[in-house]
Write a structure and sequence with these properties.
This protein has about 325 residues and is an alpha+beta fold. It contains 7 helices and 11 strands. The protein has a domain at about 105-250: Gcn5-related N-acetyltransferase (GNAT) (Aminopeptidase, 3-Layer(aba) Sandwich), CATH 3.40.630.30. Helix 2 (about 55-65) links the parallel strand 3 (about 45) and strand 4 (about 75-80).
Length: about 325
C-alpha cells in the first residue's frame, strides 16, 4: 500500500508540469496552486492535505487566487485526504468532475518489458529543446488529443505547450514516422520519482505498439537519471490503464478532480487577488521546492476518504493527460 509520503512525492512531481509554464503560482498549505490565462491545464492545485493540513482559510485563499481566470480551475485530491476537505471545497463551488487512477511500479527491469515491436519506419527518441519545428508539431498533436471534441485549441495554448516541451527541464519523447510526428509523451523526475504523462498517439497509428514504446523509452530514461519508482495517470479502465498494467503498473491511489468556473473578467468584476497575507509568486526557488505557507489547522482529524466516489466524467477538460 502506498504511504502518504509516497503519494505526496508523486503529487509534487505532478505539479512540476504546471509550475514551469504557469504565469503565477501561490504557495498554499505546503504545496502550490498555479494559474495561467493561456492554457486550461495550468490552472490547478494538487497534493493538498497530505503532509500539511488545509484550513478553511486556505480554501478561501485558493478560490480568490483562481478568481478571474478564463478557464475552469481544478483541485486534484488524492483519496487519502480528509472528507472534511472535500466538503469544504464543495461548499466553495469546487465540484467533483473526474476520477483519475494513479498507477505505479518500481523501476527495476522486469519480465514485463519486452521491447516494443514498432511498425516499419517508426522511431521513438528524445525531443530536444532546439527542435522547435518538431516541438510545435508535437504540441499541436498532443493538445488536440486532449481537447474536448466540442472545442478547438487556441494558437496561444499550442504555443504555451510548445514552450513546455522545449523547457530545459522537460524530458519529451517523440514517435516519428520518417520525419512526421505521430505520437509523444513527457517525463518529469524529482526525488527519485518519475512521472510518465502527456502521452498520445495519432488515431491512424494507434494499436501498433507505439504507446508501449513511449512507455519503455521514458522508463529507461528515468532509470538512467536515477529514479527508482515510476507512475502514470489515466482514466480508470481505459486503454492507457490496460497498457500500463501490461508493463507491471498497479493502482497506487485514486485522484479526484474537482473544478470550479471562476466569474468572467469584466469592468465590474476585475480579477481577484489573493489576500495580502498570502504571497503571490512568479518564480520558483533554486531548489525546486515551493516556499512554505503555514496556515491554521482545520477541524477534524485525518481519516481516509473512500475511493468509491461514484461515476465521474472522464473527458471534457484540457488537462495534459497520460
Amino acid at each position: 500500500m502506498f504511504t502518504i509520503e509516497q503519494i505526496a512525492a508523486c503529487e509534487r512531481v505532478r505539479m512540476l508540469r504546471a509550475r514551469r509554464p504557469a504565469e503565477q503560482f501561490m504557495p498554499i498549505a505546503g504545496v502550490l496552486a498555479c494559474r495561467s490565462s493561456a492554457a486550461p491545464w495550468l490552472n490547478v492545485a494538487a497534493g493538498l492535505d497530505l503532509l500539511q493540513p488545509v484550513s478553511a482559510e486556505d480554501v478561501l485563499a485558493l478560490k480568490e487566487f483562481f478568481s478571474g481566470c478564463p478557464f475552469d480551475a481544478r483541485v486534484e485530491l488524492a483519496d487519502r485526504v480528509r472528507p472534511w476537505l472535500l466538503g469544504e471545497l464543495s461548499r466553495a463551488g469546487f465540484l467533483p468532475r473526474q476520477c483519475v487512477a494513479v498507477l505505479a511500479r518500481p523501476l527495476e527491469v522486469s519480465s514485463h518489458e519486452a521491447p516494443a515491436a514498432l511498425p516499419g519506419g517508426i522511431t521513438i527518441r528524445r525531443l530536444y529543446a532546439q527542435e522547435l519545428h518538431l516541438a510545435g508539431q508535437l504540441a499541436a498533436l498532443l493538445t488536440n488529443a486532449f481537447t474536448p471534441p466540442d472545442a478547438q485549441p487556441t494558437p496561444r495554448e499550442i504555443a504555451v505547450n510548445t514552450a513546455a516541451l522545449c523547457h530545459p527541464e522537460s524530458h519529451a519523447y517523440i514517435a516519428l514516422d520518417g520525419d512526421v510526428p505521430v505520437g509523444g509523451g513527457l517525463l518529469d523526475i524529482a526525488d527519485g520519482v518519475a512521472s510518465l504523462w502527456g502521452a498520445a498517439v495519432s488515431p491512424a497509428y494507434r494499436c501498433r505498439g507505439i504507446q508501449r514504446g513511449l512507455f519503455l523509452a521514458r522508463m529507461d530514461a528515468a532509470r538512467q537519471a536515477g529514479a527508482t519508482m515510476a507512475y502514470t495517470e489515466t482514466a480508470p479502465g481505459g486503454p492507457t490503464h490496460r497498457n500500463a498494467a501490461r508493463l507491471g503498473f498497479t493502482l497506487a491511489y485514486n485522484r479526484i478532480v474537482l473544478s470550479w468556473k471562476p466569474r468572467s473578467e469584466s469592468p465590474d468584476h476585475p480579477p481577484a487577488r489573493p489576500p495580502a497575507s498570502v504571497p503571490l509568486t512568479t518564480a520558483w526557488d533554486q531548489s525546486g521546492s515551493p516556499p512554505s505557507a503555514a496556515g491554521p489547522s482545520p477541524p477534524a482529524s485525518g481519516v481516509r476518504m473512500s475511493s468509491a466516489m461514484g461515476p465521474f466524467q472522464t473527458r471534457g477538460q484540457s488537462a495534459a493527460p497520460s
